[in-house]
Design a protein that fits this description.
Largest sheet of chain B: 7 strands, mixed
Largest interface: A-B, 29 and 27 residues
Order of helices and strands of chain A: EEEEEEEEEE
Distance between the termini of chain A: 36 Å
Strand content of chain A: over 45%
Largest sheet of chain A: 6 strands, mixed
Radius of gyration of chain A: 13 Å
Structural class of chain A: mainly beta
Shape of chain B: globular
Oligomer: heterodimer
């Protein structure tokens, strides 16, 4: 199956904007979904498709895509946004694949 | 509200078979969606194990395919995971989740409801 590559760690100052990226050839034909995971908790879906937010997810979260790169943008990052973020998509075989995850630190 | 409740042992001996069940409430498996299993080794990232549709059609991670069986019981609104010949490398938190798919212009899928996770330790 295909691979998705994420930066292991990213930091952002409180209230600033941060972009978390995910790269992989599968993203040229399929959008990514994004998950937030806090320690000891199950992942939570924050963005899926072109730029869809599930009910209850803050509008600080948005998604975009260009070529083989998908991005999750957090506008005005808050302390509670500190978490691990994973991208996920399907490949040409319809197998699902996750990125390695990005640890977001809010300074 | 859709809820997924996982059950199964937290300790499995090497070479034996890991078995977990996910019971869905608030939504009928027969109504649609795929239903998947994902795992996360301690301190590591998420790994997709496989998915099943109400009809029983399945997709498995190629790296685990020879050892994985996912089944569905629509009468009990449950789906299950079996992973055979386990080793210490299979020690992980295992999650079940509901999986949506869209195959229009620009396909995508998503996991919108998750179980609570079950830590399965492989040890004698």
């Amino acid at each position: 199956s295909s691979e998705l590559t994420q930066d292991p760690a990213v930091s952002v100052a409180l209230g600033q904007t941060v972009r978390i990226t995910c790269q992989g050839e599968s993203l040229r034909s399929s959008y990514a979904s994004w998950y937030q995971q806090k320690p000891g908790q199950a992942p939570v879906l924050v963005i899926y498709g072109k730029n869809n937010r599930p009910s209850g997810i803050s509008d600080r979260f948005s998604g975009s895509s260009s070529g083989s790169t998908a991005s999750l943008t957090i506008t005005g990052a808050q302390a509670e946004d500190e978490a691990d973020y994973y991208c996920n998509t399907r490949d040409s075989s319809d197998d699902r694949v996750f990125g390695g995850g990005t640890k977001l630190t809010v300074l | 509200q859709v809820q997924l409740q996982q059950s199964g042992p937290g300790l499995v001996k090497p070479s034996e078979t890991l078995s977990l069940t996910c019971t869905v409430s608030g939504y009928s498996i027969s109504s649609g969606y795929y239903w998947g299993w994902i795992r996360q080794p301690p301190g590591k990232g998420l790994e997709w194990i496989g998915s099943i549709y109400r009809s029983g059609s399945t997709y498995y991670n190629p790296s685990l395919k020879s050892r994985v069986t996912i089944s569905v019981d629509t009468s009990k609104n449950q789906f299950s995971l079996k992973l055979s010949s386990v080793t210490a490398a299979d020690t992980a938190v295992y999650y079940c989740a509901r999986e949506g798919k869209y195959y229009g212009s620009g396909s995508y899928y998503w996991l919108d409801f998750w179980g609570q996770g079950t830590l399965v330790t492989v040890s004698s």
